[in-house]
Design brief:
single chain, alpha/beta, Rossmann fold, 7-stranded parallel β-sheet, 7 helices, binds flavin-adenine dinucleotide
Length: 319
Protein backbone atom coordinates (compact mmCIF):
# COMPACT_ATOMS: atom_id res chain seq x y z
CA UNK A 1 0.00 0.00 0.00
CA UNK A 2 1.08 3.57 0.43
CA UNK A 3 0.88 6.60 -1.83
CA UNK A 4 3.25 7.55 -4.63
CA UNK A 5 3.20 11.29 -5.42
CA UNK A 6 4.53 12.47 -8.76
CA UNK A 7 6.22 15.75 -7.83
CA UNK A 8 6.43 18.37 -10.57
CA UNK A 9 9.57 20.44 -10.75
CA UNK A 10 10.43 23.64 -12.51
CA UNK A 11 14.04 24.48 -13.22
CA UNK A 12 15.17 21.71 -10.86
CA UNK A 13 13.00 22.92 -7.96
CA UNK A 14 9.79 21.23 -6.74
CA UNK A 15 6.67 23.18 -7.69
CA UNK A 16 4.11 24.41 -5.17
CA UNK A 17 1.70 21.73 -6.41
CA UNK A 18 4.18 19.01 -5.31
CA UNK A 19 4.19 20.35 -1.73
CA UNK A 20 0.37 20.55 -1.73
CA UNK A 21 0.06 16.92 -2.79
CA UNK A 22 2.68 15.64 -0.35
CA UNK A 23 1.04 17.40 2.61
CA UNK A 24 -2.37 16.02 1.68
CA UNK A 25 -1.00 12.52 1.01
CA UNK A 26 0.56 12.49 4.48
CA UNK A 27 -2.65 13.71 6.14
CA UNK A 28 -4.68 10.93 4.46
CA UNK A 29 -2.92 8.35 6.63
CA UNK A 30 -2.96 5.62 3.98
CA UNK A 31 0.59 4.38 4.46
CA UNK A 32 4.05 5.43 3.35
CA UNK A 33 4.18 8.56 1.20
CA UNK A 34 6.85 8.30 -1.48
CA UNK A 35 7.72 11.38 -3.51
CA UNK A 36 8.66 10.50 -7.09
CA UNK A 37 10.83 13.03 -8.92
CA UNK A 38 11.75 12.55 -12.57
CA UNK A 39 14.74 14.35 -14.07
CA UNK A 40 17.40 16.60 -12.54
CA UNK A 41 16.18 18.31 -9.36
CA UNK A 42 17.04 19.25 -5.79
CA UNK A 43 14.84 16.86 -3.78
CA UNK A 44 16.16 17.77 -0.32
CA UNK A 45 13.08 19.77 0.74
CA UNK A 46 10.50 17.02 0.12
CA UNK A 47 10.81 15.29 3.51
CA UNK A 48 9.84 18.52 5.25
CA UNK A 49 6.59 18.67 3.30
CA UNK A 50 5.35 15.14 4.05
CA UNK A 51 7.39 12.64 2.01
CA UNK A 52 8.45 9.58 4.05
CA UNK A 53 10.75 8.50 1.23
CA UNK A 54 11.96 9.98 -2.05
CA UNK A 55 12.46 8.10 -5.30
CA UNK A 56 14.57 10.15 -7.66
CA UNK A 57 14.83 8.81 -11.20
CA UNK A 58 17.30 10.82 -13.17
CA UNK A 59 18.87 10.09 -16.51
CA UNK A 60 19.16 11.76 -19.90
CA UNK A 61 15.86 10.22 -21.09
CA UNK A 62 14.01 12.04 -18.28
CA UNK A 63 15.70 15.43 -18.68
CA UNK A 64 12.73 16.82 -20.61
CA UNK A 65 9.16 15.56 -20.58
CA UNK A 66 8.28 12.76 -22.95
CA UNK A 67 5.13 10.68 -22.61
CA UNK A 68 6.74 7.27 -23.22
CA UNK A 69 9.64 7.70 -20.79
CA UNK A 70 7.46 9.28 -18.08
CA UNK A 71 4.77 6.59 -18.21
CA UNK A 72 7.38 3.81 -18.12
CA UNK A 73 9.22 5.44 -15.18
CA UNK A 74 5.90 5.89 -13.32
CA UNK A 75 4.94 2.24 -13.89
CA UNK A 76 8.37 1.13 -12.67
CA UNK A 77 8.02 3.34 -9.59
CA UNK A 78 4.62 1.81 -8.78
CA UNK A 79 6.19 -1.66 -9.04
CA UNK A 80 9.22 -0.64 -6.96
CA UNK A 81 7.16 0.89 -4.12
CA UNK A 82 4.07 -1.34 -4.26
CA UNK A 83 2.02 1.84 -3.94
CA UNK A 84 -1.76 1.45 -3.85
CA UNK A 85 -2.39 5.01 -5.02
CA UNK A 86 -0.60 7.43 -7.34
CA UNK A 87 -1.27 11.17 -7.12
CA UNK A 88 -0.30 13.77 -9.70
CA UNK A 89 -1.26 17.32 -10.63
CA UNK A 90 -4.06 17.92 -13.10
CA UNK A 91 -1.66 19.80 -15.37
CA UNK A 92 -0.23 19.00 -18.81
CA UNK A 93 1.82 16.09 -17.44
CA UNK A 94 -1.03 14.63 -15.38
CA UNK A 95 -3.48 14.95 -18.26
CA UNK A 96 -1.08 13.33 -20.71
CA UNK A 97 0.68 10.63 -18.69
CA UNK A 98 -1.94 9.43 -16.20
CA UNK A 99 -4.50 8.07 -18.72
CA UNK A 100 -1.71 6.09 -20.42
CA UNK A 101 -0.44 4.87 -17.05
CA UNK A 102 -4.01 3.80 -16.21
CA UNK A 103 -4.19 1.78 -19.44
CA UNK A 104 -0.78 0.22 -18.83
CA UNK A 105 -1.56 -0.80 -15.23
CA UNK A 106 -5.23 -1.61 -15.77
CA UNK A 107 -5.83 0.95 -13.04
CA UNK A 108 -8.84 3.16 -12.29
CA UNK A 109 -8.26 6.89 -12.79
CA UNK A 110 -10.05 9.83 -11.19
CA UNK A 111 -9.15 13.12 -12.87
CA UNK A 112 -9.36 16.81 -11.90
CA UNK A 113 -10.05 16.22 -8.20
CA UNK A 114 -10.48 19.26 -5.99
CA UNK A 115 -10.53 17.25 -2.76
CA UNK A 116 -9.31 13.88 -1.46
CA UNK A 117 -10.30 12.01 1.67
CA UNK A 118 -9.84 8.53 3.08
CA UNK A 119 -12.91 6.52 3.96
CA UNK A 120 -12.66 3.01 5.41
CA UNK A 121 -8.99 2.87 4.40
CA UNK A 122 -9.81 3.75 0.76
CA UNK A 123 -9.08 6.94 -1.11
CA UNK A 124 -12.05 8.98 -2.34
CA UNK A 125 -11.62 11.80 -4.84
CA UNK A 126 -14.15 14.63 -5.17
CA UNK A 127 -14.32 16.21 -8.61
CA UNK A 128 -16.51 18.71 -10.43
CA UNK A 129 -18.57 17.45 -13.39
CA UNK A 130 -20.83 19.10 -16.02
CA UNK A 131 -18.70 22.25 -16.13
CA UNK A 132 -18.70 22.51 -12.35
CA UNK A 133 -22.50 22.22 -11.91
CA UNK A 134 -22.16 19.14 -9.69
CA UNK A 135 -19.55 17.37 -7.61
CA UNK A 136 -19.06 13.59 -7.56
CA UNK A 137 -17.17 11.39 -5.11
CA UNK A 138 -15.23 8.71 -6.97
CA UNK A 139 -13.48 5.57 -5.72
CA UNK A 140 -11.53 3.03 -7.75
CA UNK A 141 -11.95 -0.73 -7.54
CA UNK A 142 -8.60 -1.70 -9.09
CA UNK A 143 -5.50 -2.72 -7.11
CA UNK A 144 -3.83 0.61 -7.95
CA UNK A 145 -5.80 3.85 -8.03
CA UNK A 146 -4.68 6.96 -9.91
CA UNK A 147 -5.85 10.46 -9.00
CA UNK A 148 -4.99 13.83 -10.58
CA UNK A 149 -5.64 16.92 -8.47
CA UNK A 150 -6.09 20.53 -9.55
CA UNK A 151 -3.32 22.80 -8.25
CA UNK A 152 -4.37 25.06 -5.34
CA UNK A 153 -6.80 22.48 -3.97
CA UNK A 154 -4.95 22.17 -0.64
CA UNK A 155 -3.04 24.60 1.58
CA UNK A 156 0.69 24.05 2.07
CA UNK A 157 1.67 23.49 5.69
CA UNK A 158 4.89 25.11 6.93
CA UNK A 159 7.79 22.69 6.34
CA UNK A 160 9.02 20.62 9.26
CA UNK A 161 12.62 19.64 9.95
CA UNK A 162 11.91 16.06 8.79
CA UNK A 163 14.07 14.58 6.10
CA UNK A 164 13.40 11.61 3.83
CA UNK A 165 15.77 8.94 2.59
CA UNK A 166 16.44 9.34 -1.13
CA UNK A 167 16.68 6.33 -3.45
CA UNK A 168 18.11 7.17 -6.85
CA UNK A 169 17.87 5.26 -10.10
CA UNK A 170 17.43 5.60 -13.83
CA UNK A 171 13.76 4.62 -13.74
CA UNK A 172 14.41 1.75 -16.13
CA UNK A 173 14.08 4.10 -19.09
CA UNK A 174 16.45 4.82 -21.94
CA UNK A 175 16.64 6.96 -25.08
CA UNK A 176 14.49 4.41 -26.96
CA UNK A 177 11.54 5.30 -24.67
CA UNK A 178 11.52 8.93 -25.82
CA UNK A 179 8.64 9.14 -28.26
CA UNK A 180 8.50 12.92 -28.55
CA UNK A 181 11.43 15.11 -29.54
CA UNK A 182 11.52 18.52 -27.85
CA UNK A 183 12.85 20.95 -30.44
CA UNK A 184 12.48 24.18 -28.51
CA UNK A 185 11.35 25.34 -25.07
CA UNK A 186 9.89 28.84 -24.90
CA UNK A 187 9.94 30.46 -21.48
CA UNK A 188 7.05 32.85 -20.71
CA UNK A 189 7.98 36.54 -21.16
CA UNK A 190 7.01 37.36 -17.59
CA UNK A 191 7.88 35.92 -14.21
CA UNK A 192 4.20 35.74 -13.28
CA UNK A 193 2.86 32.56 -11.71
CA UNK A 194 1.20 30.39 -14.36
CA UNK A 195 -2.60 30.75 -14.40
CA UNK A 196 -3.13 27.08 -13.50
CA UNK A 197 -1.13 27.50 -10.28
CA UNK A 198 -2.05 31.11 -9.48
CA UNK A 199 -3.55 31.81 -6.08
CA UNK A 200 -5.09 35.08 -7.32
CA UNK A 201 -6.34 35.97 -10.81
CA UNK A 202 -7.70 39.18 -12.30
CA UNK A 203 -9.43 38.42 -15.60
CA UNK A 204 -10.88 40.73 -18.21
CA UNK A 205 -13.53 40.20 -20.87
CA UNK A 206 -14.48 41.54 -24.28
CA UNK A 207 -15.74 44.70 -22.58
CA UNK A 208 -12.13 45.91 -22.22
CA UNK A 209 -12.46 46.83 -25.92
CA UNK A 210 -8.76 47.12 -26.89
CA UNK A 211 -5.39 45.65 -26.02
CA UNK A 212 -4.31 49.10 -24.77
CA UNK A 213 -7.24 49.26 -22.34
CA UNK A 214 -6.71 45.65 -21.26
CA UNK A 215 -3.05 46.44 -20.58
CA UNK A 216 -3.85 49.66 -18.72
CA UNK A 217 -6.79 48.36 -16.64
CA UNK A 218 -6.54 44.58 -16.09
CA UNK A 219 -2.76 44.17 -15.82
CA UNK A 220 -2.14 47.03 -13.31
CA UNK A 221 -5.00 45.79 -11.11
CA UNK A 222 -3.53 42.27 -11.33
CA UNK A 223 -0.15 43.66 -10.28
CA UNK A 224 -1.73 45.48 -7.31
CA UNK A 225 -3.53 42.30 -6.22
CA UNK A 226 -0.32 40.24 -6.72
CA UNK A 227 -2.35 38.21 -9.20
CA UNK A 228 -1.90 36.64 -12.61
CA UNK A 229 -3.91 38.28 -15.41
CA UNK A 230 -6.43 36.14 -17.28
CA UNK A 231 -9.00 36.67 -20.03
CA UNK A 232 -12.23 35.34 -21.48
CA UNK A 233 -12.14 33.74 -24.89
CA UNK A 234 -13.98 36.70 -26.39
CA UNK A 235 -11.18 38.96 -25.12
CA UNK A 236 -8.56 36.60 -26.59
CA UNK A 237 -10.39 36.33 -29.92
CA UNK A 238 -10.53 40.13 -30.10
CA UNK A 239 -6.74 40.30 -29.63
CA UNK A 240 -6.85 41.91 -26.16
CA UNK A 241 -4.83 39.07 -24.61
CA UNK A 242 -3.09 35.89 -25.74
CA UNK A 243 -4.40 32.34 -25.77
CA UNK A 244 -2.05 31.57 -22.85
CA UNK A 245 -4.18 34.01 -20.81
CA UNK A 246 -7.49 32.31 -21.64
CA UNK A 247 -9.55 30.79 -18.84
CA UNK A 248 -12.27 28.28 -19.62
CA UNK A 249 -13.27 25.13 -21.41
CA UNK A 250 -10.88 25.72 -24.30
CA UNK A 251 -8.37 27.65 -22.19
CA UNK A 252 -6.91 26.92 -18.79
CA UNK A 253 -8.74 25.44 -15.81
CA UNK A 254 -7.88 27.53 -12.77
CA UNK A 255 -8.51 27.08 -9.07
CA UNK A 256 -7.39 30.24 -7.23
CA UNK A 257 -8.37 31.59 -3.82
CA UNK A 258 -9.47 34.85 -5.47
CA UNK A 259 -10.84 35.38 -9.01
CA UNK A 260 -11.75 38.92 -10.03
CA UNK A 261 -13.82 38.96 -13.25
CA UNK A 262 -13.96 42.36 -14.95
CA UNK A 263 -16.69 42.71 -17.58
CA UNK A 264 -17.07 38.97 -18.09
CA UNK A 265 -20.63 37.77 -18.66
CA UNK A 266 -20.18 34.30 -17.13
CA UNK A 267 -20.83 32.04 -20.11
CA UNK A 268 -20.91 28.33 -19.26
CA UNK A 269 -17.62 27.76 -21.13
CA UNK A 270 -15.89 30.44 -19.03
CA UNK A 271 -17.39 29.14 -15.78
CA UNK A 272 -16.10 25.64 -16.62
CA UNK A 273 -12.59 26.97 -16.14
CA UNK A 274 -12.97 29.04 -12.95
CA UNK A 275 -16.06 27.97 -11.07
CA UNK A 276 -14.14 26.19 -8.30
CA UNK A 277 -12.37 29.48 -7.34
CA UNK A 278 -12.84 30.04 -3.61
CA UNK A 279 -13.85 33.72 -3.79
CA UNK A 280 -15.23 35.18 -7.02
CA UNK A 281 -15.58 38.96 -7.36
CA UNK A 282 -17.55 40.07 -10.41
CA UNK A 283 -17.71 43.59 -11.84
CA UNK A 284 -20.34 43.99 -14.53
CA UNK A 285 -22.63 46.82 -15.57
CA UNK A 286 -25.47 44.39 -16.28
CA UNK A 287 -27.13 43.35 -13.00
CA UNK A 288 -28.56 40.28 -14.78
CA UNK A 289 -25.18 38.98 -16.02
CA UNK A 290 -24.96 35.22 -15.26
CA UNK A 291 -21.61 35.67 -13.48
CA UNK A 292 -23.45 37.24 -10.53
CA UNK A 293 -25.14 33.89 -9.80
CA UNK A 294 -21.71 32.46 -9.00
CA UNK A 295 -19.99 35.49 -7.50
CA UNK A 296 -19.16 35.74 -3.81
CA UNK A 297 -19.12 39.55 -4.18
CA UNK A 298 -20.70 41.44 -7.05
CA UNK A 299 -20.30 45.08 -8.11
CA UNK A 300 -22.89 46.34 -10.59
CA UNK A 301 -21.18 49.17 -12.40
CA UNK A 302 -18.68 50.31 -14.98
CA UNK A 303 -15.40 48.42 -14.73
CA UNK A 304 -13.50 51.45 -16.00
CA UNK A 305 -14.59 53.30 -12.83
CA UNK A 306 -14.39 50.38 -10.38
CA UNK A 307 -11.10 48.74 -11.44
CA UNK A 308 -8.91 51.83 -10.70
CA UNK A 309 -10.61 52.21 -7.28
CA UNK A 310 -9.92 48.54 -6.48
CA UNK A 311 -6.36 48.99 -7.69
CA UNK A 312 -5.81 51.97 -5.37
CA UNK A 313 -7.18 50.06 -2.37
CA UNK A 314 -5.14 46.91 -3.08
CA UNK A 315 -2.01 49.04 -3.55
CA UNK A 316 -2.58 50.44 -0.05
CA UNK A 317 -3.25 47.03 1.54
CA UNK A 318 -0.59 44.98 -0.23
CA UNK A 319 2.08 47.62 -0.69
C1 LIG B 1 -16.89 25.39 -27.85
C2 LIG B 1 -16.73 26.70 -27.14
C3 LIG B 1 -15.66 26.84 -26.26
C4 LIG B 1 -15.50 28.04 -25.56
N1 LIG B 1 -14.44 28.16 -24.69
C5 LIG B 1 -14.37 29.29 -23.95
C6 LIG B 1 -13.33 29.44 -22.98
O1 LIG B 1 -12.46 28.59 -22.82
N2 LIG B 1 -13.31 30.57 -22.25
C7 LIG B 1 -14.23 31.57 -22.40
O2 LIG B 1 -14.13 32.59 -21.69
N3 LIG B 1 -15.19 31.47 -23.32
C8 LIG B 1 -15.27 30.36 -24.11
N4 LIG B 1 -16.24 30.29 -25.05
C9 LIG B 1 -17.01 31.52 -25.39
C10 LIG B 1 -18.15 31.81 -24.43
O3 LIG B 1 -19.31 31.16 -24.88
C11 LIG B 1 -18.42 33.32 -24.38
O4 LIG B 1 -18.67 33.78 -25.66
C12 LIG B 1 -17.29 34.14 -23.77
O5 LIG B 1 -16.90 33.59 -22.54
C13 LIG B 1 -17.78 35.57 -23.57
O6 LIG B 1 -16.73 36.37 -23.14
P1 LIG B 1 -17.02 37.74 -22.36
O7 LIG B 1 -17.73 37.42 -21.11
O8 LIG B 1 -15.74 38.47 -22.31
O9 LIG B 1 -17.93 38.54 -23.40
P2 LIG B 1 -19.47 38.84 -23.38
O10 LIG B 1 -20.28 37.61 -23.22
O11 LIG B 1 -19.72 39.69 -24.58
O12 LIG B 1 -19.69 39.68 -22.06
C14 LIG B 1 -19.19 40.96 -21.85
C15 LIG B 1 -19.75 41.42 -20.50
O13 LIG B 1 -19.16 42.65 -20.16
C16 LIG B 1 -20.17 43.48 -19.57
N5 LIG B 1 -19.70 44.86 -19.78
C17 LIG B 1 -19.61 45.55 -20.95
N6 LIG B 1 -19.06 46.77 -20.74
C18 LIG B 1 -18.82 46.86 -19.40
C19 LIG B 1 -18.28 47.86 -18.56
N7 LIG B 1 -17.82 49.03 -19.07
N8 LIG B 1 -18.17 47.61 -17.23
C20 LIG B 1 -18.61 46.43 -16.69
N9 LIG B 1 -19.14 45.43 -17.47
C21 LIG B 1 -19.24 45.64 -18.79
C22 LIG B 1 -21.44 43.14 -20.29
O14 LIG B 1 -22.56 43.45 -19.48
C23 LIG B 1 -21.26 41.62 -20.49
O15 LIG B 1 -21.81 40.89 -19.40
C24 LIG B 1 -16.41 29.10 -25.77
C25 LIG B 1 -17.48 28.93 -26.65
C26 LIG B 1 -17.64 27.75 -27.32
C27 LIG B 1 -18.80 27.60 -28.27
Amino acid sequence: MGILVLCDTDGGVPRKSAYELLGKAKALGLGTVTALVLGPADVSSLGGYGADAVLHYNNAALATYSTGATVKALANAVAATGAGYVLGSANQVGRDAFPRLAARLGAGLVVECTDLRSEGGKLVGRRPVYGGKALVDARVQSAVGLFTVRPNSFPIAAPTAATAAVTTGDGGVSASDIDVKVVQTLAPDSKQVDLTEADRIVAGGRSLKSKELFDSVVRPLAAAVHATPGASRAAVDAGLATHGDQVGQTGKVVNPSLYIALGISGAIQHLAGMRTSRVIVAVNKDADAPIFQFATYGYVGDLFEIAPLLQKEFEKILA
